[in-house]
């Protein structure tokens, strides 16, 4: 698994008897770091974190990324790691042309940087909160690098499964249909998507909590809804949404609407 430079001694065209040095490319790892509590890291994730020569994580400028905080429990070697700081997070709407251009440039530059390491034979592990293939920034680097380098994605416990576990509520029973929604969708779209579902997870709450509260009231789900903040992390908070007195919500928060399906 480790980045390596292989020295082979195959057919020697010049007959000079010198070993031919062939460079093996490194592997790009997307490492699912789980929902927050480092005890939910998988054995496979731990193995890669211990051995990869290059470790990167996404973060807001001047702040530590959450995926990196999860890794505190297992990583003690700053020489192997560097952050990838987003040019914007919530300063501009995600469909703003400046945001789109800046993010595309950021991912292009980051993938060039990682390609240098991979091309030189060093494995690169991208620390990804939750599961890398579930709304993960990792995917934007994966898309740019997957056709040039070997890739291995290590699944992680998702934030939502950490949250419903900590809320002590099963999310789906029997034939329940679960709908996962980003709270960033327009109000009408949220209402439309919730109609007819049995259970829901509403992510990316932040400043959208008042809208989500209204939508849940309109669709009849408010009484069942549970608000979970920083599930499995320090500062965790779990409360029925109807009892939450204010409409503030941090980035790491979601609303769960548990299903009530078949229970023989
Ligand atoms: C960009 S998505 C990343 C999802 C992540 N890849 C996963 O597998 O859960 C970020 C959103 O996930 C949700 N989230 C992830 N982990 C969470 C946690 N531990 N507690 C509460 N919400 C969480 C929040 O709604 C947050 O806005």
The gist of it:
Its EC number is 2.1.1.130, 2.1.1.151. The chain has helices spanning 43-51, 66-71, 97-119, 138-145, 159-167, 187-194, 209-219, and strands at 5-8, 20-23, 28-32, 54-60, 81-86, 124-128, 151-154, 178-182, 199-203, 226-229, 237-240, 253-257.
Question: Could you please describe the fold and organization of this structure?
Answer:
The chain has 264 residues and is an alpha/beta fold. The protein folds into two domains: 5-157, Cobalt-precorrin-4 Transmethylase, domain 1; 160-257, 2-Layer Sandwich (Methyltransferase, Cobalt-precorrin-4 Transmethylase, Domain 2). The protein contains seven helices and twelve strands. Helix 6 links the parallel strand 8 (178-182) and strand 9. The radius of gyration is 22 Å and the shape is globular. It starts with a strand and ends in a 7-residue tail after the last strand. The structure holds S-adenosylmethionine (SAM). Residues 27-239 form the Tetrapyrrole methylase domain.
Key traits:
2 domains, 22% strand, 12 strands, globular, Methyltransferase, Cobalt-precorrin-4 Transmethylase, Domain 2, Cobalt-precorrin-4 Transmethylase, domain 1, 5-stranded parallel sheet, 264 residues, disordered N terminus, 28% helix
């Amino acid at each position: 698994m480790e980045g390596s430079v292989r020295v082979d001694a195959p057919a020697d065209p010049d007959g000079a008897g010198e070993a031919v040095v062939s460079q093996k490319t490194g592997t790009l790892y997307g490492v699912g770091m789980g929902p927050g509590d480092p005890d939910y890291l998988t054995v496979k994730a731990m193995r890669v974190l211990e051995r990869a020569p290059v470790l990167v994580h996404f973060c807001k400028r001047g702040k530590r990324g959450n995926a990196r905080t999860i890794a505190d429990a297992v990583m003690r070697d700053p020489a192997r790691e560097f952050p990838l700081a987003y040019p914007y997070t919530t300063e501009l709407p995600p469909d703003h042309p400046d945001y789109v251009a800046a993010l595309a440039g950021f991912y292009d530059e980051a993938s060039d940087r990682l390609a240098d390491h991979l091309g030189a034979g060093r494995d690169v592990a991208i620390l990804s909160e939750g599961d890398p293939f579930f709304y993960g920034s990792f995917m934007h680097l994966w898309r740019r690098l997957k056709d040039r380098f070997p890739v291995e994605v290590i699944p992680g416990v998702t934030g939502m499964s950490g949250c419903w576990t900590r809320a002590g509520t099963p999310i789906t029973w029997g034939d329940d249909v679960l709908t996962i929604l980003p709270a960033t969708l327009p109000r009408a779209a949220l209402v439309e998507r919730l109609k007819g579902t049995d259970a829901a997870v509403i992510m990316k709450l932040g400043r959208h909590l008042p809208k989500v509260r209204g939508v849940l009231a309109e669709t009849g789900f408010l009484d069942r809804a549970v608000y979970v903040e920083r599930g499995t992390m320090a500062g965790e908070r779990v409360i029925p949404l109807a009892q939450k007195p204010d409409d503030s919500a941090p980035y790491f928060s979601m609303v769960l609407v548990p299903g009530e399906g078949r229970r023989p």
